[in-house]
Write a structure and sequence with these properties.
With 668 residues, the protein is mainly alpha-helical. Helix content is 59%, strand content 4%. It has helices at residues 11-31, 39-54, 65-77, 88-91, 95-104, 110-153, 156-162, 168-187, 191-205, 214-228, 237-258, 279-283, 287-299, 304-316, 336-344, 347-367, 369-378, 380-395, 409-415, 417-429, 431-455, 488-498, 549-552, 565-575, 578-584, 600-622, 642-649, 653-664; strands spanning 322-324, 327-329, 504-508, 523-524, 543-548, 629-631, 635-640. Strands 4-3-5-7-6 form a five-stranded mixed sheet. The radius of gyration is 27 Å and the shape is globular.
Length: 668
């Protein structure tokens, strides 16, 4: 990082960075203007609004107090109406039910709330794009800063998450900012630098619980500074102890301020309640972490909402449904994030980073190992952040989305700055070399922009041509890597142009938006969130089938993986009751009299099992069948006639196998 009194970049570079950052924020927000809320945005806005308006922290304390508050400010300013606080969902702290009513049942305008929240979050993306060129300028000069700025501003991954009201982009910014500020502080003893580092650390603690990585990162950087950084002052225990105390105090005060300087997550002036999942459940994570949190809870050292949110995250990171290349797991794979990185990163960025590494290697060969060591010392904070975050990610069981390695991308953008430095060196050597390097850099930048244009505005669905592009993405990754519930408006537009008269629409949607709000009238098949909306027992009839990629792959369903003989046997057993299910027209009232020696509860349970098996059998076939259309690459459309349904749903296992073979086509 900069020396003790870092100079500012040239004014023209500052203005250029501001323009790129602003353009990035506008483009990210604009691309999402016709997208429905993603699954997590509903909870983020509901939680943030609850924090801001009611000083109550029962709703969604697990996903970053600061970004939720920040993103919900427009909804507070526009006077959005909140659901009745006497509702049972308020007492149960059910953020999903409350959020669904907040968005679609309280007379609010979801599009306006989302637009405001996403614009607020895009400012975090803009902030990242100011840190990136500053680092690149310090390391590689103005030309390096420009190259890094271009690759960062046009990266589909950064654009996708700048345009979504979640905590991922906020954490990407605060991790980089906190590491940068700490490194600066290690080299500059001034109080203002100490204050900047301490406040940044405190804000990171309420941005997302990934901030638990910062103390180890600070420790590694401190040791590294003492060992290899000649400009770092000698460690003196008294000032260093004061620094640690200041950072701890700043985090302590900011955390308490974020939760209203009150221990209880529940505002005593409002109707009482309890957490949706009991304390005993989230503490069942066990081990030292749970013991420390229990101690903090017993002594009220930190706010209840903060402690509960932390344990909620730890508990749910133990095991979680995950999908990768047609395989399923609840504990994840070491290969998940490396593959996700390869699949979701533009080839231009991969080539640029590789070229940068090769350029540095050639330079080191000319100058010697000492020169390389000097350069590595200058980028030490970025290397430590990148290596540590990747190390933690590889060991993680939480393999639900490419977004969880988002904080490592700014380091890659900075690395591309080497190309700018190489261009300057080439021009100083000879004009031919300068033109060649400039042309190659322009080709890489043009390749990046071309990939971006090809996927616009569906940045979340970007997949590299290496794996067939976004149209093949659902074979490799789903959930927030592709399908987060964002494409209901696109589905509505497609239906307006392609829906045939009297054609029935069946919908299985992964997300928290409301199809009825967008005028999508459909038979509701299994969905990730039912929101307690009554779904009559129904037949699957000829017509259109719109299925979200995550639902098609059955990641979070009870039945995952290949269709087995045991599942086939159960399905055929329940299929024999199909006529009875249709005549009963459930779901049945639990108090209803027994029918055919089965209680109403047993009939309801039997239907649930039958519907899950029927849907799993259908998806097992559709995963190899080519869709008629793809909406934003996240919702697949199939048009099925009666003959095809008969082969897939009403025949034997052999009939199903023949249908799959026919859909897959001949082997190459």
């Amino acid at each position: 990082m900069p020396p003790s009194r870092p100079p500012l970049p040239p004014r023209w570079l500052i203005c250029t960075a501001l323009l790129f950052a602003l353009g990035h924020a506008v483009l990210a927000s604009w691309a999402m203007r016709d997208k429905s809320n993603t699954a997590d945005e509903l909870a983020h806005l509901t939680g943030g609004y609850t924090f801001n308006r009611y000083n109550d922290y029962r709703m969604h304390p697990e996903n970053g107090n600061l970004p939720q508050r920040w993103q919900a400010l427009p909804a507070v300013i526009m006077g959005a109406t909140y659901p009745d606080l006497q509702d049972p969902n308020w007492r149960e702290s059910n953020v999903w039910q409350t959020g669904h009513r907040f968005f679609f049942g309280a007379g609010n305008n979801p599009a306006r709330m989302l637009t405001g929240a996403r614009a607020m979050n895009a400012l975090f993306g803009a902030a990242v794009l100011l840190l990136v060129p500053y680092w690149a300028w310090h390391l590689f000069g103005p030309a390096g800063a420009l190259v890094a700025l271009v690759f960062g501003a046009t990266c589909p991954t950064l654009l996708a998450h700048s345009g979504l009201a979640t905590s991922d982009m906020a954490m990407a910014f605060f991790l980089l900012a906190a590491v940068s500020a700490w490194w600066w502080h290690l080299h500059d003893p001034r109080r203002r630098v100490l204050a900047l580092s301490a406040v940044t650390f405190g804000l990171a603690c309420v941005a997302k619980f990934s901030a638990v990585l910062l103390p180890p990162l600070f420790g590694l950087l401190t040791v590294a500074a003492l060992l290899v950084s000649r400009s770092a002052p000698r460690l003196r225990w008294r000032p260093f102890g004061f620094s640690l105390l200041t950072h701890g105090l700043a985090a302590f005060l900011i955390i308490w301020a974020a939760f209203g300087f009150r221990y209880s997550a529940f505002n005593p002036a409002l109707p009482a309640g309890e957490f949706n999942l009991a304390w005993d459940y989230v503490l069942s994570f066990g081990g030292l972490k749970a013991a420390v949190v229990s101690l903090c809870r017993d002594w009220r050292l930190l706010p209840e909402g903060f402690l509960y949110g932390l344990m909620f995250v730890l508990k749910h990171a133990e095991a979680r449904g995950a999908f990768l290349d047609g395989d399923y797991s609840i504990f994840g794979w070491v290969s998940f994030f490396p593959k996700a990185f390869l699949y979701k990163t533009t080839p231009a960025l991969l080539v640029a980073v590789t070229a940068a590494a090769a350029g540095l290697a050639l330079w080191a060969r000319e100058r010697g190992i000492r020169a390389l060591g000097f350069q590595l010392r200058r980028v030490l904070p970025l290397l430590v952040l990148f290596a540590t975050y990747w190390g933690i990610s590889l060991a993680s069981h939480l393999n639900i989305g490419h977004r969880h390695i988002l904080p490592t991308y700014p380091v890659l953008y900075v690395a591309t700055g080497v190309i700018g430095w190489m261009i300057v060196r080439a021009w100083r050597s000879n004009r031919a070399g300068g033109w060649l390097m400039t042309g190659l850099a322009a080709l890489l930048a043009g390749w990046q922009v071309a990939d971006l244009r090809a996927v616009h505005p569906h940045y979340l669905a970007y997949f590299s041509p290496i794996v067939g592009g976004p149209a093949q993405g659902y074979h490799h990754l789903v959930d927030s890597s592709l399908d987060w519930g964002q494409d209901l408006p696109g589905l509505k537009r497609w239906l307006e142009e392609n829906h045939r008269p009297q054609e029935r629409l069946h919908l299985s949607y992964f997300g928290t938006a409301e199809p009825d709000y967008y005028g999508i009238q459909a038979v509701r098949m299994p969905m990730i969130h039912g929101f307690r909306i009554r779904r009559p027992w129904h037949r699957l009839e000829p017509g259109l089938y719109a299925i979200s990629a995550t639902m098609l792959q059955h990641v979070y369903m009870g039945i995952r993986g290949p269709w087995t003989p045991a599942q086939e046997e159960r399905y055929q057993k329940f299929r024999a009751l199909a006529g009875v299910f249709e005549s009963l027209n459930g779901p049945l009232d639990p108090a209803a009299a027994p029918i055919n020696d089965l209680t109403a509860a047993e009939w309801n349970q039997a239907w649930d099992q039958y519907e899950q098996l029927r849907f799993a059998r259908l998806c097992h076939y559709l995963r190899v069948r080519r869709p008629e259309a793809m909406i934003g690459y996240s919702i697949l459309i199939f048009r099925l006639d009666q003959a095809e349904l008969d082969r897939v749903l009403h025949g034997s296992a052999r009939d199903l196998g023949r249908a799959i073979e026919a859909a897959a086509g001949p082997l190459p």
